[in-house]
Every structure is written in structure tokens, then in C-alpha cells.
Amino acid sequence: MKNSINKIAVFSLLILMILFASCEKDLEPEVYDKLAPSTFFKNEVDAKAALTNLYTGMFGGGWGGGYGAAQASWVVQSSQTTDELVCSWGDGGSWAKLNMLNFDDQFSTLTNHYTRLMPRVTNATVLLHNIAAVPMDEGLKKRYLAEVKALRAHMSYILYTFYGPVSIVVDTEYALDPNSSPQARPTNEWMIKQIEKDYKDAILDLPTTYPASDYGRFTKGAAMMGLLKLYMKEKKWTEAIAVGRDLQALEAQGIYTLVPEYEDIFKIQNEQNKEMILAISCDRESNNFNMWLAHVIPGDYVDPSGQAIEAWGGYKMPWKTYDKFNPSDKRLKQLLAKYPTDGGAIIDARAKGMEGAIPKKYGIDPTATNEAHGTDIVVWRYADVLLSMAEAINEVNGPTPEAYYLINRIRTRAGLPNLDIGLSKDLFSNKIMDERLFELWCEGSRRDDLIRWGKYIQRAIDDGSPFATENKILYPLPRKAVNESNGKIVQNPGY
Amino acid sequence: MKLLPKYKPKKNWLNSKTWKVMKLSTILFVVLTLQVSAGVSSQTIVYSGKKVPVKKVLSEVKKQTDYVFFYDANLLKNTQPVTLNLINVPVEKVLSEMFENTSITWVIQGKTISLISRPEALKSDTYIRVIKHISGKVFDDKGQPLVGANIKGKSTSIVARTDVDGSFTIELPDSVSSLVISFIGMETLEVPITGSPMTIILKSEGQKLDDVVVIGYGTTKRKDITGAISTIKTTEIPKGANTSIDQALGGRAAGLVVTQTSGQPGAAPTVQIRGNASFASYGVLYVVDGVPIDGGAGEPGSGTPFGAGISRSPLNFINPNDVESVEVLKDASAAAIYGARAGAGVILITTKRGKKGEPKVSYSFTGAYQQPADFYDILNKHDYMVERNRITKEKYLLTQKIAPYGTTNPSSVPAFVPKYSQSEIDNAGEGTNAIDAVTQSGYIRQHDLSISGGTDKTKYFISGNYLDQEGVIKTSSYKRYSGRINLDQMITDKLKVGVNVVETKSFSDNASIGTGQNETAGIILSAFYHPPTVELQAADGSYPLNPDYKNSPNPLSFLENTDETILNRLLTSGYAEWEIIKDLKAKGNFSYDQSNSKRNVYMPKSFLYGLRNGGVANINESNSNTSLVEYTLAYKKSINENHHLNGIIGYSYQVRSTDGFSAGNSQFLTDGFLYNSLEVGESPKPTVGSWKGKQVWASYFGRLGYDYRGKYILQGSIRRDGSSNFAENKKYGWFPSVSAGWKVSNEEFMQKVPVISFLKLRASYGTTGNSNIGANAFAFYAAGGGANYVFGNTQSSGVYQSQIANPELSWETAKEINLGLDFGLFNDRITGTFEVYDKTISDLLSYKPLPSYSIVGSVASNVGKTQSRGFEFTLKTINIRSNDFSWITDFNIAHYKDTWKERDPEVIKTLPKYVGLNDPIRALYGYQTDGILQIGETVPAAMPSLKPGMVKVKDLNGYDANGNLTGVPDGKLSSADAVYLGNADPGYSYGFGNTFKYKRFDLNIFMYGMTDRLKYNDDKAVAYDLSSKMGSFGWNALEMVKDRWASDNTTGKNPSGLINPYGSYTGNFFREKADFLKCRNITLGYTMTKEMFPNQKIFESLRLSIDAQNLFTVTPYSGIDPELSSFIAYPAQTSIILGLNVIF
Fold it and tell me: What is the 3-state secondary structure (H, E, C) of B576-645?
């Protein structure tokens, strides 16, 4: 009996063992929504997809950073921290904080640019390495590498203008080392040189235009414009004039020019116009959509076309700023002090007690059904080249006839008379400052402009801010970046 | 189902008389052998008298013999005096002469003569039946005879009672096959008649030490348990208004915290066992009849901004009425056998199975009436106009810097023009309440039918359930059809097979609760926003919008939407158990759980979102398939009286695959198609999507138990789990446990302490593992989603590195020590359990932040160690137990604390400086608020632009140049000022129940609650954000905002509603104490039994009950419900439930 127990027990165990063993091999992970490194980054298609992802640094979806319309956008921050815009919303006082330059290290709207862009700069560095290794059409490879460099330069520039020099990763080996640790912050000079080099390298290999289906990519002109922005920021006037001339040469080639009517620049019907140097190409059923109108149009606005518009009524241009405009300026067609409501009635925003005028700027996408419009978003346009050139020339040579000519081209289009001749360099400079506001309002230029002119802090003081100290020219770094570096990365002063 | 008694000729009756004598002598014989001291009574009696009262005769008999009589005094009340003339007759003769033609009969046992009422059937002379005489004794589970227990022939009205030594005799028609024995405070027992005499043991109701308790891969007796296990008997909890069993478990077991975070029909409560100091927890593992259950097909999205906030319990597919018992495996030693998914504890659910006997048919009906327990008080039209004027005025004063916000002379600026004139306000009236317009009284109707029974070989339980619930938010409802078959069949006496099938189909109408705000606000928040000055529906049927904010849908227009979820779930399982040799059993267990959830949504043009998109239709589907194969080999052996061994080894392999599909379109010609003709939509880009995932678990396990003379119990188990989530060589982990129990009360020295009827000490140590981190140990690239970008107005797909490899990633392991004490006092009138535990989780699975410049933000990693400590106390007292009245009290309380023990140095580097390394896991950090700034008060130095009526924040700290805290205020607010505010976990959670039974009535009152609890009051925080919301957008607000601080109400205790420039620091002003005590159920029942209606042949018993659920809540919390998740949660309900339960 005992023997048979043993036999049966052993037999049963054996059966169990066989059953167990048969299942062990099934313990491999099965993932259906991701690509393993063994299958990805092998060919041209992979390179293209990786580059596409890098472009998301320019526009982080509807609510993220980049050239969007929400608080995280650097266009919006450029306006909200200057005299261009205030906001009617509460949102925990965050808009008031922006406008009063009441910055602190827990204000994630300010620190998130670092969190978003630092990894993307590293990613660009890795992509330069990876794309170079992919067997593909050499011409296309060159272009892709140039696009990566232009993007890296632009993202580095955004980091630089917000935080000053930061420890961007441009060394491939360091980028690929999983055990690398944070490095100390570089000097301004190193940072400027790095951005300049990337832009210059990119200019060499980028095309001047793309087929319509590739619209939105960095072109030669866009990289030049990026470089012009850098030189303007650094007040390197000669270099700025030089790269401005290159851009003017592109106008001569018929690549760029001014669009005859200011309002047409921002219409969906007029996308890919010749004034655009770089745009965020938008489609309302995609990740890239234009939410500007929802942010600025008041809730009781009724478009004369009858189209319902998502309208949250947030941003307003303060009356103080609005009143600087010449009432006959055609650009006011896009900046509403009065707006239509039910039954064709007109609401006077000032009389209603609103904080300012409605910075409508963009036209309506006739297919829009909610906050998402398909209208392309302006990054840079040719008018900025003309005004930058006028400024740089004035800085170097005073108000030359060329400088007058450049600014008057802009004024003429706006239906304004030419500037009085015989202005002093300073007065001319003031005119340029005003003209940049009238022309480029709410396009992301104002913060850099006021900083360059030394007026960024003063503006906030004039508006009664008790927080406007000189250190607010730079944003705080995220606390995490400081903490994780064991003292190597130093926080910006005053935070 | 009723079997009529068979009638037999009279001679059998006579025959059985002699049989009765034989039986009696058998009893005597038994009694004699048991009680040697009892002498044989052979005395005779001499007595004569005329018209003597019966009582007198009895005392005479007592005098002449040493017999004693035992009877109910009422019994003799109506007896006629007797005339006797007896010389030397035996006692039996005296009795038969005396009680001839009366309703009294007798039983002689030893020297006791019990007089009992003669069963009615025997009095009748219209027909004579075959009668059998059954006798026996009834004991309680401590071996004490039960006096006065009711013995009833099943399906008859023949009743007997036990006498002083627990004995009974009953005469029953031959056709009756079983007895029903009942006693107040004890569980009613039905036993088949196996012969006579019978020995019957009744158990106390409720958690009783002799109960069989289901444990992982087996059962044991409660008194033999060595780990921490709580049992909840579903007979003790009213389930009327609960669509799933988990909803009914709140407060029922110490250490089990069930929080009802949504009142939506079919919603899942959050269920937590003890502390939960893991970040990757699977959550509680549910095992239903041995099959680990996952959530099944998840709730598909709606494809619109309004579809979130839907909650579904994973147990919705189980009819709560089918559940026999719920076991909560709390400590690691109890749960360890379930290994990898048992880290957060295990809940074993056992459904009802057939028992040998006649078919038992049970029907119950539940009807519930429901109202929102507590809901938002919004301003009426008149008050809205007043408050909107007030906030606009306040905003005007602030903007113009007029006192108290500045020194501007009011006459120097344009005067304030109120939005509404005084006459408009005076004529406004109440208006229509938008919250009322979207709520209704709800109801539940439930029918439940079950049939169970069986023979020696076949046992079955079959049930069907229909539930129909109409929610308290309009357009929300839940309908469920559910059926179950549990079948056990002996093929041979060595081979047993069984099948369980449960199929459930449910239809839910989802109200658009949503989780969005502003223009994506759902139905509740939209009602909250809607200005009372705007009518809810115009005469032409259209839904007017708020003229100041035309993006918010009209709340009533939500009712035009169609949003339904159809869920099918079929769980089939089967087993075969083979007794290979005596004591050795092999078992195979197989299950397949398939579920499919489909959500159909249409938003028509009458709804704002639908209008703008020309009608939106979406169909989303999700599927889940889980298969399980389990083999076990169990051995049980008693070597002699002293040594008892049991053991089991097994293997389990489970695969779960999930997938889903979605499609949608918009721009429809007409709303008439709903989602049934997607192709008709003219959207330029109809949406489409699909996904799939798969998980595999493979485990080996074993357990060995040893019991020495029922005093010392040792048990050990081990499980080896494999997970596909880890790299090679890291896939498998070992999870052992040991536990021991010492039944002190079985020791001889304890016999001298009769007060203590049971005492057991136990200790356990166990480990469980966790692998719930997904396939994150491997490097992957992800496509689409946020990586896409648009070129030339066309979206291109981007690819990015989404995760980097961590070949070192391995099992998270929990080690738990549990010490327990089980006791029973005064013959188990008081029973209780006390437990303390200490659980350490090491190699926590979480994500380690990588340096800020890394392409991938974090990597799955083992990041540290946490500790949970706590205690639990459970007490049950039988306060009163008499024939007609009993009162039982249940009480439990639990406390735990989860804290950090160790953190990865890399993680520490990235932590904010205010975080303490050993803080609670769910620590709350934030800024300390300091009341409201008053007029004339010095403005805090760190808040120079603060205005009166705004919340002050304390400047406590600052950073030095190296980014370290200085410990002194730095004159500005920053993250340095954040401090530890408290623990988000409750301090204590408790449950308290009282059950009263009086004759046929039973009353149960159950309360539960939590103490030491903090909750952020979203309701209030949102309510006081008035400046733009009410001022500019014209949104309505809560009643409570009337009493805010304002220049015309400077004693207001709440903020002014103007935009605080330091608003990001002031949130804690709205954090409140959220202790609560809820009256969960008051249930009153009345049970009618067959004997009350002698002429009906339909039912066996019938119970009527009324239950009030969530009658009241005692709490200092000022929001609508301290349990609900957030301010737009579906409200909890107060329900009045009528129940009818009939057993045929």
C-alpha cells in the first residue's frame, strides 16, 4: 500500500512538472503599442518620424508650451509679462503674477519650459547621431540633419532667453550615457556661440522653400530669422544687419514680401503667404490647432457671419497700450474696442468696463466647431525683418534713409503716413519701439524687445508691481534641476 | 414544489406505537450508558381521586417516585381535572390515563418527564398517517445542551421543543425527511432525518469560532486560523440598494476600508485592506470561488469631453444575492499563497452552492426609493442678482482703488453701474433651480430567484437576477440581468466534477457627469453654473445659453444626449477533483472569463457640443479575456490522535489579454441616426482607433500545515511567481510565509478559568510580491499621440523614445508580521480579535526621475522601502439571549499608518526640500494660511499686493545660495514655505452594528465612520472664485458665498471672491477636517413562518423588511459628502428599501 502511494504521488508530481514546464516560456513581454529598439531607427521613414517628434518642441499641443495660445505658451507669456496683454481670468492669481512679474520657483508655467525643452535639446543631439547612421538618400539626410540643428538652435535660444545660459546637452556621448550627471551651467558666450553655430550649419543645408505638403519645416530663411533674433537680443548689430541682408536677398528672389493687407496675414484663406518665414501649420483635427480666438473673444461676442465661436474671453490689451495706436491704423481692424453681439448690436468694451481691447488678431476658421481652429500660427514673418533691420541700422548709423524706408513700408501698409524726417537717433528708436508694438503685438516678440530696450522691468514698476526687480528678466529654474545637481547648477539670482 | 403528505392505513399507526416504545427505551439506554449514576426507575404508583387537577397528580407522582417533571406552565392551564383510580401502575400508565384526549404528550428521559404539546396532526382524527418518532438532543457548539430550542419537521407545522437537557422527541409523518432546528441567537439548521436518536449541534449566529473559513486554495476552521482573516456573512448585511457586494462592505470588517466615492448606479467604491504603502499596487485581489477576478473589460471612453467620471465596480457582474460569504485575507501570511497580486490583500468571495435535500426555492423582491443624500444649494434668482451686483461692485472698487482697496476719491471716477436694478431684483422671485431640474428621485427594483438542492451525488444552485435602477441624476440608470449555475457532481466516489457559470448583461445610461470644468463641465457643474436669470428651456423647446458665456451647455440640454454602456460578462469555470488514494486529492481548476463593454454615444444638435459639430456619434469597445489553469495536489493525514498534517502544492497559469476599438463621426444630416449609421457623418476626419495589451502570470505554490492535539498549529506556505514585466533572471520571485497558533484555552490549566471559553494566540510572518509596473523594464519607442506634428495642414506621425531599459528591475516585496489574539468569554457570549501588524515593502516599484536633460523623464525602478503599521480590534457581544429576545452588538475599529523608511538616493536628490525622508506615504504638503486680511491690518511683508478680504499665507522659510532651506522667513513666498500639513489617510476607521430580535421581528442598526481625516473642500474653493466666474461669466454660485468677506460684510469668514494674486498659495484655506459617522443602514424585518398560516401550502417562510440606507451623516465637513471624491461627483443617495423574501 505504502509503495503504491509513493508511486501515485510521484506520477502526479511528474504530470504537474510537465504542465509547469510547458508554460514557462510564455513569460516574455508582449507589447502591441510600442516599438522595440530592435525594430526602430533603421531607415528613412524612422528618421522622418523621429524628426517629426522633435518639431513638437515648437508647439506642445493645445495647452502645452511653444507657440500656442494658453498660459504655457511663450507667445502668451511674452504678452502677459509686458504691456501687450492682461487676462480677465482668476486661475489662482497666476495671470496677475505674470503681469506683475511676481515670479517664483513653484510657478510651473515659468519653469516648465526648462522641463520641456532640455530633454528635446538632448534628443536633437542624439538624433544627429542616429540619423547620420541611417542608410538613406544623402540629400534628404543632409536636410534632416539641418532641420535638427535649426530646431536645436531655436529651442536653445528659447531656454537662453528665459533662463540665461543652461547646461544643454550637445555632446553625443554624454547624451547617450545613461549614467551621466548634471553639469554646471555654461557661460553666456558659450551658449550664444552654440546657438549661432547650429543656425549657421543649418542655413547651409536647408532649402529656401518646401512643397506645400512640407510647409511648417525650418527653411533657410527661418534659420536666418532665428539667427537675426539672436543677434538682436545680443545687440550684435553688424551681424544682425548681415543676416538681415541675406533675408532681404530672399525677398529679391521672390521668396518673401509683405502681404498687401495686414489682416490677410492671419487668415486661414491666405495660409502659406509670402510674408511668413516660419509658421506652425495647423489643422483643427490634429495636435496642432490654433486656440487664440477662444482665449480672446468675449463670451457674448456673436460673429456677423453667424458662426458660433468658442469664446472664453480671457486676454485683453490694456487701454493704456491700445490708446497708443493711431485711430486710423488699419491694424486696429484686428484689435477690437467694440464688438458685435446678438442681433448685430455692438458692445463697447471700454464702456462695459472691460480691462482692455480684444486682441482678435486671427481670422475665423469657417469649419471650426470648438476652440480648435485650423489657422496657421505665425512664428516669424517678413515685417519683423524690416523692423529689425531698421533698428539695427539706426543703432549703427542712425536713422538713415534706408532705415526710414524700411519702417515706412510697414506704416504704409497700415494706412499711416510716413515718419517725419529728421528724427534724432533716439526719437527714431522710440518710433521703432512703437511700430514694433503696432505691427507685431501678440506674436511673441514683446518680451525680448522690452528686455533689449531695458524697459521690461520698468513697465511692471509703472503698472504698480512691488515685485519688479532686475532679476525678473530671467525665469527661475525648476527646483528639481537645482536639487538633482548637488549644487553644480545654481539657481538664477533672487529665486 | 410542495409535496403532499401521504396517508396510510391505520394499522401502521398502531405498529408505530410499539416502535415508539422501542425508541424510548433506546433513548433510555443511551442516557443510562452516558449517565451511570442514574438509577433505573421501576417504581409504581398508587393513586385515586375524583376531579383532581392535573398539577396535583403530577406532584403526587413526584412524591411517590424520583421522577421530576419539566413543562411549560401554560401547557397545563386548560387541562380538565381528572378522575383516576390507579393501583401499582407504572408511571407511563398514569400519564396516558391522565392526558388521554388532551393535547399533551410526554417524553421520559432518565428521571425527567417532559410534558409537551402534542403535535397538531396527531389530534386530528379525520385521517391517520404513518408517523415516525424522532428523538435526539440539541447542543450548542460548546457541547452544552440547549433548552427550549425549536424542532420542526420540514414543510410541516409540527413543532417540538427541547427540554432541560436538550432532549426532544417529535412525531412526524413518514414523508418528512428533515428537521429544522432553530433557536434565537443561533443559526437555523436543517438536518436530514438519519435515524433516531439524533445529535444536533447549533452554531451561534455570526462569526463563530467553529465556522468553516475559506482560505486560499482550501478551507479551515475559524478556530484554526493562524493569519489575519475576517469573514463577512452576507446574511448579516442588507444588500437592498447595493448593485455590487463591495458597496455593502464598508465598516463591516476591521482593516477593510471601503469608501463610496461616487453615488452613480453601479459605481465602484475604493476598497483598501490595511495600509497601502505601495505605488504600483494592483489593488485588492478579488477571488471568486477560487478564480482570481480582474476588472474585466474596462469602461470605454465616450470620445467626447463629457464622458469621464463613470465608475464601474469590477464586481458588478456578481449578483450580491448569490454571495454566501466574503473573506478578507489581511496579512501577508494569509494572502501569500496568492503571491504576486496579493500585495494589497485578498478578498475571497464564495457563492452559494446546493446542499443535499429537497429543492429549495427562494424569491426576493427589493424596491428602493432614492434621493440625493445631500446636494448643492445654489443661489435662487433673487439672491443671484444681489450677489452678482455685489461681486461686480467689489471688483469695481478694487480696480478703481477705492476704499477699502485704495484711496481714490469715488467721485473722481465713473460711478458704479449695477448689472441688475433694484426693481429687477425685487421682482425676480426664486426662479427655477437648475440642480433640481437635472435631479430626480431614483428607484431600484430587483427580482431574485434561486433554486438549490441536491442528492448524494448531484448538488446544484441556480439563480436569476434582474435589477433596474433609475439614478438620482436624470438620464442615469442601470439595468442588469444575471444568471448563475453552480453544479457539483460525483462521477464515482473518487471523482468529483463541478461547473460554475455566471453570465451578466448590463445596460447603463450614463449621465454626462464629466470631470471637466468651464465649457466641458458635465451636467452637474453646468447646472451649478447656469444663471437663474436664464430660463432652462424656451417656449420653442430650445435651450437658451448663458448670454455672458455662450460656451457652457444649458444643463437641461444634457438630457438630449444618448450615452449607454452595454457590458457582457461570462465567467465559466470548471473543476475536477480526484481522490487518488485516501487523503490525497488532485484537482484541476479551469476558468475563462470573457467580457465585452461597448459604449454608444450620440450628442445631437440640440446640445451645444453636438450643434457645433453637427451631431457627434462615437462607438467605443473594449474586451477582456482571462484564462486560468490551476492544478493542485492536496494531502491530509492524521498520524494518530495527536498529529494532524495537511499540505497542498499547486501550479497556476493565467493569461489576460485586453483590446479595444473605437470609431466616431460627426456632421450628420439629422440626429435620427444616432450612432447607428456612422458612415453618414460628413466629418472630414472621422475618428478611429484600436489597442491591445497582454499580461501573463505563472506561479507555483505550496502550503504545509501541522496541528498538534488541536493546541499548536503551524503553517507554512511558499509561492514562486513569474512575471513578464521583468528582464531575464529577474522574472521569478519566491514568496514564503510561516504562521503559528496556540490555542491556550485547550490547555488543561485553562480549564480552571471557565470564564474564558476560547483563547488563541497567533503569530505570522509572510511575504508577497508585486510586479505591477507594466513592460517598463525594457526600452521602447512610442508612436503617435503627442509625438505627432503637422506639416502642410496634414498630421505626420512622430516616434519618440518613451522608456529606457532597467535590467535590474525586479519584484517589489512586502514582508508582514502579524500578531493576533482571538478570544471567547462566557461561553462565547463575547468574542473578539485583536491584531497588530507591521508590514515593510521593499524594492518599491515606481518611477525614478532622471536628470532634467534626459530624453526620457523617468525610469521604472525599485525606489525604496515603506512601512505600514496598525492594529485592528473586533468585538462581538451577545448582550441578551432569551427565547423571545436577543441583542447582539458588533464593533470593529482599525488604525494604520504608512510611512517612508528608505528612498533611493537619486530620488532624494530630486525631492522638494520640505519633504521629510520618513514622512507618511500620502503626506499632504502645502502652505499655511493665516486667515483673511482685514481693513487696517498690516499687509504681510511677503504679500505686498494682498488686499483686504483675501487669504493670508505664512512666510516661513527661504533658500540659501545652494538651494537649501534657511529656516527663516525670506520676505517672499516660494516653494520654501511649503510645510508638512498632515496625513491624507484616516486615523481610525470603525463600524458599529446592533441586531435586535424579538419574536418575529428583527432590527439592525449599522453605522460606520472614520476619524482624523482631512479633505480638500473643492465645493468651497470653487464657490469663492467669484470675480470672473460670477462677475464676468455670470455663473451661479453656492448659497454659502453670501457670507463672504466684502466691503459691506467685513466680518465674513470666507474670502472675498476677488482674484488673489497669491491664489496659488491659498488652497489650504479650504482643507477641512472630514471625520464622519454615517448611519449606513437601519433595517427592520418581520418573518412569517408556515405555521402562522396553517391553511396555505405555498410558502415555507416569508420575510418583509424595510431598510433605510444612508439616513444621516455626522461630520464637521462643510462640503456635500466627506466620502465623495470631488465636487462634481455623482451624489450619494439616501434610500428607503422595501424587501420581500419568500422561501417555498
Answer: EEEEEECCEEEEEEEEEEEEEEEEEEEECCCCHHHHHCCCEEEEEEEEEEEEEEEEEEEEEEECCCCEEE
